[in-house]
Each structure stands twice: as C-alpha cells, then as structure tokens.
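Morning!

This is the sequence you dropped in the shared folder:
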Amino acid sequence: MEGLCGAETKDVRPIDRLLAQAGKGFDNIGKVPAAQRDTIAERYRTARNKLVIKAQELREAEDWQRWTNVPKAEALIDTAKQMAEAPADPDLGNRLRQLQAMWKEEVGALPQKRGKELWDSFKAACDLVYDKVKGVRAEEDVKFAEVTKVKEALIAEAAALADSNDFSGTAAKLKELQAKWKESGHLPRKQGDDLWKKFRAACDKFFERRKPILEAKSAEEAQNLAAKHALVQRAQSVANAAGEGTWGKAIGEIKDLQARWKEIGHVPRRDADTVWKAFRAACDSLFTKRDQARDHEANAHRAEVEALKAEIDAVVAGSGDDLVTRAIAVRAKAAELNVLGAESVAMVQHLIANHADAIKGTELDPGQLRAKREKLIGKAEELLPKQAAPAENAGDVAAQLKAAMRKNAFGDLRFSGRDPVEVVDELRASWTEIGPILDAEDRAQVERFEQTIAKVLDAAGAKARYDDPAPRTERGEGQPRERRRRGERNAAQPPMSSEPSAISEIVATAAAIPQASELTSVPDAAGSAVAAITPEESTQNGAIPQSAHDAVTQPAHLAPETDTRMPANIPPVVTTPLPPPPVRAKAPTTAPVMDAVDDAWDMGDEDPTATKDEGTPSSTEMAGDGSVEGDGLDQVD
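The structure's back. Tokens below.
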C-alpha cells in the first residue's frame, strides 16, 4: 500500500482492488506483540487513507477527462452530418472510413450520462453517409464493367502477340498496349490484380522468347565496340607516327580506317558517342598535326626568304672583297628557292654598274655571260637542217626536217630522233640560268636566240610555245609563265576516262601518206650518216647522257633509220573495226589528287553506325501505374 501511494498512475482500478484486499488481509494477520501492534495499525491506517484520497482524485480526473471528450465527439458528429448532406463523390467511402477511425482513436471514454446519446448520433449520421456510398458504388460498378472489357481486350491482343517472331515490331506493339493499359482505368484491388497478372504473363512470354536474341545482339555489339576501340588505337598510332614525307600514306590509312569503321556495325548506345568522339579526335589529330607542320614549313620558308632579301639589300648597300662571293651565293640560293628573281637581277645589275672590276672573271662577268649565250645560240642553229631544199609549203619543210632527223643530217649534233620541242625547252632552261640582260648587245642576243628557236619550231611543224619572246633575265621569271601555259594545255586536253574507248573506223588516204620524190641519182655512201660512223665507233657502247647538254651535243652511236620509198597513188584503205575490248571486272584504281585527299573527313559530325537500345522493359514500363487498386471502403456495420 505504501508503494502504490508513491507510484505514478492514472488508473484507479488497481487502487480499488488493493484497498479491498488489504481490509480482509489485515483482519486475518493474527496476534502480534503488543509493542508492534500499535505501530503496524498506524502504518496501515495512514497508507489506506492516502490510497483512498488518491483514488478519489483519480476518479475526479477521469470524470473530467470524459467530459473533455464530449466536444471531440460532437465535432465528429457534425462532420458526419455534413458528409451526409454534401453531394456524393468517389472518395466518400474513404473519408467515412477515416472518420470512424478518428472516433475510435481520439474520442475515448465519455460520461456515462451522455455517452450513449453521442454514440447514437454519430452512428445515425454515418449510416446516412454509407447509404450515399452505396449509390456511388453502384455507379462505379457500371464503370468497372467497361474498364474490365477494355483490359480483357488488351490481354487478348498481348496473348496473340506472345508467339510472334517479329521481335522488333512486336516489342513496339506491346509497349503501345502497355501505354493503353495505364490509361484504361482502375478496378477494385482483387479484380484488378487478377487481370494485371494475365496481361503481365502474356508480355513476359514474348520478352522471355526475345531475351536470347537481345543477348546475342548485345554480344555482337560488344565485339563491335572492341573492334572500334582497336580502330581508335590504330588511328592514334597513325597520327602519332606521321611526319614529313608520310602525310599522304597516313591520310590514306586514316581513310581506310574510316571505311572499316562504317563496316563494323552497331555498338551499345551508351558507348556509341564516347567511342565515336575518340575516333574522330584521333583522325582530327593527324590533320591538325599536318597543318601545324605545314605552317611551320611556311614560316621557315618565309623566314628564309626574308633572310635572302636582307642579304640582297646588304650586298647592294655594302662593299668589300667578299661582295661578289656573297652575291653569287645569294643568287644561287634565290634560284634554288625560285624566289626574289627581280631582286637578284637588280643586285647583279648593281654590281656590274658599281663593281665592274670585282666581277671580272666571275660567273657574273657580262663577257662570260655573252659567251655562254653565243654557245646556246650555236646549239640552236645546229637544230636547223644544213641541206635545206626548196619547199613548196611549210608541210614540206617539216617533212624535210623530220627526214633529216632520221638521217642525223645535223653536222656534229646527234640527238637520236628526240623531239625538237623537248630540245628547245632544254635550251631555253639553260638560257634562263645564264644571267640578266644588261644592254643592247645582250638584247640582240636574245632576239637572235628567239628567232632561231622560232625557225626550229616552225620547221618541226610545232607551234611556238612562247607567244611573247620577252627576254628572260633570271631563273624564276619565266617559270610562272611556263607553268601557266602548261596548265592551259592540260586544261585544253579532253577529260580522260577509266574505261577503254571504242575503236573507230580508220580510213587512210593517199594524201595522208607522205609521197616519196623520184629518185634520180644514187646517193654517195660517204656522205651518208652511216658512212660517217667508223667500224670502231659502231662497236662501242654509246655513253648514257648525264645532263641536258650531253643529251643535245653527244654524238649518237645508233644506226639511222632506213629511208623507205612508198609507191605513189595508193588507193584508200578501209580497215575493219576491231571487236570491243572485254569489259573490265572493275574500274582501274585512280589515286585521288592530294587536294581531294586532304579534306579527309567525309563521315559527318555524327556516328552513322549508332543504334538505340532495345532492352527488356522494367516493371515500371509494363502495365499499371503502381497505384493501389481496390474498392476503397470498409464495410460499416
């Protein structure tokens, strides 16, 4: 009793039970010593009085608590009445269930006098609400029937597609059915779960059949990814190893790698962008490296030209014993680089005008330059036939020149039937290397040289290659003009085809065949080209020319061609066309020009082999939206 007096409790029932038991027990204790009897009796009375007071206080507090629950109960009753009066909605059953739970959890015990009254009022209001819930449920039953039909139709479609072998198309259709399932509406939990399991089973059947196909495709894409990684590494190696003289080979290999890239196939989508960017970066690094090398070469060339220009200016402005030596060196370097032609000429003219004594005996001496030109003029004159018989027209002159070339009737000049235009080009090249034109005497030499060349070209039946016989004073001045004319000649030629052209009919006429003149005397063998060659010379091997000068001036040790006489009045000859050549299995390979190869990249900014993932849908991609389906109402009794 003393322990319960000090305990914290709000329940009065344990105190009432202890007081009832203590009264009976204390009376049955028996006899105790007189000295202790009074003490025990006093302790019993004190503890009992405390428990009685505590029990009374607890009863008063409990009664007060019951009265405090009355406003809560009245508030819930008002809420139930409002729900009964308000229009019905689909969520009315859920709200009624929540209201009933609040009565159980929050209201608690009520005063005995008002408890039954409040409960009856609350139950009556809930019954009215439940009647409205029944009406809502009847409407929902009609809607659920329609939803059930839609879901069953979707299940039938999914089951029909479960055995399809069109994996890609069927997967797309099943995903469309899943989207329709999510939009088909809700059903009570049990009914909805049963239909959902049937639909999921039909979808799973197809996706399980497709799973090995996807696994094989995934393995193939993994192999393709490894192959493309290998191409990336190879492209990086090619780019790192490329250097001067190997740009064309490296670019060709990069193009081959790009072609192989297109042939490999798809890779996993998650890796497609990464490996593509790595391959593109490796290819781009080659062209960046090449462009940087070209820029470096251009800068080095520019610096070299600037240094030559500065040296020319220094020679023009300077003086000293080594001035001519420096001028010769800088002139040779400028000619080697094919730059500063006008500046070099001006420098030489300055030295001739201001340092005449210093240049005597050097390659810049005007006298030596004129002597070299005279030799070239003499070589050009040797190209003309020495026995120029009268000709009726230019064609006869050309024929005589060609016949003379066949007979080697050019005095000491032997060029074994070479094209005279080719020899003229060599003479012109040697002429430009001699030096600048300084005065009237030099210009007279130029005029003589050009006139002689013109006669040679006219006699050979070739059109003069140079319309403007302006004096070429230094290496590099005439070369741009020649390159321009050579480009014009190439542009005038018809485009070439990789396929053989058809053989056309050939008609030969008498006018097209050279007519031999009547033979009136036997030529002297001693005066012929064959007789001019001694037996010792005929047994010796002809030396191979080592330069353009040797090719023009070195005697030929080959036997001349036999002069064949053709009978006159040859009738026209019509030849039968040859059958067309067999069709080539493949067109001959033609290497593209460097400018076309340099562009290098023709694959675009996007990888052409990238694909989209097609994996088994997750549970969230399958039917349903994850919400709880059910009737949403507990039965209220």
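Headline: The first helix runs from residue 2 to 6.

More detail when I'm at my desk.
O.
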